[in-house]
Amino acid sequence: MKFNHIIYKVEDGIAHVILNRPEKYNAFNFDLMCDIVNVQKVIKKDRDIRVVIISGKGEHFSSGIDIKSIMGQPIQFFKIGWKLNPFGTNMAQRFCIGWHRLPVPVICVMHGISYGMAMTLALGADMRYARPDTELAIMEAKWGMVPDMAGLQTIRSTISQDVANELIMTGDPITADKALEYGLVTRVVEDPMAEALAMAEKLKARSPDATAAIKFTNQKSWNGSTRALLARETLYQIAQLISKNWRIMDIRNRKDPNKPFVKRQYWW
Known about the structure:
Elements: E1 6-11, E2 14-19, H1 30-45, E3 51-56, H2 67-71, H3 74-81, H4 91-100, E4 106-110, E5 113-115, H5 117-123, E6 127-130, E7 135-137, H6 151-155, H7 161-170, E8 174-175, H8 176-182, E9 187-188, H9 192-204, H10 208-221, H11 226-241, H12 244-254
Helix pairs in contact: 1-4, 10-11
């Protein structure tokens, strides 16, 4: 599949999704949003991918939505927000929650400005590594709007409600260190890409089926009922015990640490 404003490459099981509008600080126009939604579909179909790393080319991760481009074309604005089923997802919501639905870990590498839609994109990742110079903000309030891109799904399980209210209602930017204190980012390091690659190698040493099951258990049960959690744990554990990768993991632990995994089960 051809992409307009992202660089997509897969290297040794690691899928790299690189925002590629550096001349616009990787601001999200309609084409870049389409690229994000489409690359999620490509990744989901590729059972050889073990980890996804999202990053931005140039001086900044992303300055957020390209207001001039989006608002200047009403039909595109309509396409981004339209959905027939109010309980379903529109393009703007898939932009974030689509990463939750991938059966592989997603790591976001952040640097420079990470505003608005960029923050929503990052919240869709499972881990967020930020450079010390990163500045983050949830900015819908500054445009007289409410967060409507499914980012709250992650925020509500990441930070306390009072802190979320403060950040969302003001739209004020915060530093990487403050984001770490709040829990919005996982780590603040000088070289977040190196940190992400090191984590990717650790994750590749685990069963792809177990990783998928752990991710989906957490995503679906973190704010759910205990009954649903217990049922999901049991079903997902059965899925592990009938997989080849569970037996391979046993061999790797006891006999041959380099025995390769097979592709993850097709139902993830």
